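Batch manifest, entry 17 of 40.
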Amino acid sequence: MRKTRLVRRFMLLALAVCLAEGCSSRDKYPVHGKVTKADGQPVGNVVVEFASVQGIHSAVARTKEDGSYALSTDGKEDGAPPGAYRVRLISADEEPDYIEPEDEFAGVRRAKPQPVPLKYQNFDTSEMQFVVHESDENQFDIVLSGRASK
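Output type: structure tokens
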């Protein structure tokens, strides 16, 4: 009888802690979406970066040719912790961000066209912010307005 009461007390204590702290054992939730231009064309080969507003977490993804992405934090497409995130997009192209002149004596480098308008390449100017919820349905589609840089 005494043992049963002890077990019951322990279970009630565990339940109280669980309710106070949250019972979920998951710390990341799937986040996916699609990046397109205003005309509906997909934007592939772009890095989508989510940075926690509190500066604690970040998650990244690279868009596929169809513009789709799925965020990764610690593993492949494992999602992101819940919370508010600022978002930016940058070119995933590993080539230099300039074009060498055809004439080596011209001495003028031209900026390489970027697939993402400049305003989306910075957290402060992108004006994009999303909230990741404790849910398996965190879909954030991004439509780029404006011109890509030339």
